[in-house]
Amino acid sequence: xxxxxxxxxxxxxxxxxxxxxxxxxxxxxxxxxxxxxxxxxxxxxxxxxxxxxxxxxxxxxxxxxxxxxxxx
Length: 72
Hints:
Elements: H1 3-15, H2 25-33, H3 41-61, H4 64-71
Helix pairs in contact: 1-3, 2-3
């Protein structure tokens, strides 16, 4: 997990300044598990936190290769 990138995302949500997040493969998979609908800024921050937890669990349970296989 990239703490700096996650911080940039949270800052971007709060300030409206989108500089990109630089998600890891496991974070991208976690994002795919939760469909995005219209959310408030607070809801989006909560969603990103949940995605971070799921991504961390994925990284503990699976290798990068196994995670990448989901995308293929």
